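Morning run. Coffee first, then this:
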Amino acid sequence: MSTQMSDAKSAAGAGTDEAISIVQRGNLKSLETSLRKQWRLGQNIVLCWSSTDNGILVMLVPHYFLGNYSAAGDTGTPDEAPGSSGSSPAINPNESFIRRLISGQRRKSRDEFFEVSNRLGVSATFIKLSAPLDDEPAVVDAVDEIIRRYGISYVSSRAVLLFDIAEFSLYTPFEQASQLNSLSYSMNSAYNKLLTRGIEINFARTTTGDGYYVWNRDLRASGSLDLLHFLLLVIADNAQAREASKGNTVPLIRSGFHIGSHYELYQAEGVNPTVFSYIVGDVTIELARMVDLAQPGQVFMGEFSVELPSPGKNDDADTVTLNTLGFLQRCNEESARLHGMQLSGQEVTAFNCRVSEAALPDGTRVARRFRLTDKHGLARDAFNLQVQIETASEQKWVFGLSDDRLPSRASTDTAATGVDKASLASSQGRPSKSSVSED
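And here it is:
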């Protein structure tokens, strides 16, 4: 079996080679060889598949087909974008259909397959195999992962991080390489620390040039909580490395955490698709705009809603819907899993995350919600995250932007109305149209 196929199966959790017979491994190799020819360096993409007695049916379309089909669906009742919080535009029925089609498992029953074929006006392509395809989960998952690599996928809700190195362009090429390598090491270190507590993050990343997008390949609801714990440890490792470093070899980072939708694809390398995926969509766009307005050392959390397993449950079928603040509270409740972890040779006894707060005139404390307005005039809400880690030796580490570095209220009146006229962006030399204010 090819290395690409083995890596793809591993990433999908499809099972080991020992779980798939020699005959079925031959089927998978034949399938990939046939798809590579039909793929034609990315000219065509695969949408879905269905089993037959002596092979499989696949649905192949030109790479531009989905865009044209979605654009043509401007009639009918628009659907709300999956995972939207009200700020995302409604999508037309054709695009909604395509998103459902390329979400989750790509295997369809024969009836479902031909319903899709009739709606899209696309004929099926038959790929003959040397033996009937097994219906074992490991085989089906392996086929599904191969199909994804020759197509494009839609994920309606996933947690994604963005790490951005402040003032990256001002450093020498050697310093830039050192800083990217240092940030990469911090991620690997965080992964290993979580592993010691029985938490495995199957994380993927793509570079932005001066940082990384990072996400958890595991789409279970609990994977979002794991990724936030991962973020906290990366920030801690980076801060400790900066204290011990000399020169400009360790980056000063600004970070963002958000949950939303995106598309996932595999780009071509030579004549084959890569085994590493790339993501683009609402969640990456929102993160980029948030972090662009963040100060060095700051961590922004977007405003989102997410479904998590009910407390005490480990079943995605029994879930509760939480907003950003509820999600953060849940993260604190589950941070006990990290107690006993070693940071700088000291045993961690407490993790606590909170967002910046403000006092109302009656003394009530509420979360400060910041309105981020970019240079295009587009706005979104976010929270300033602060993290405190305590150790058995009573040492405390505090990360994130402190309250005294946040925009101050202009007057008593604005404290009552919740409107903040100060702008972080203007103090950083950005266009005045970009701003951070309190909503």
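The chain has a mean pLDDT of 84. Good start to the day.
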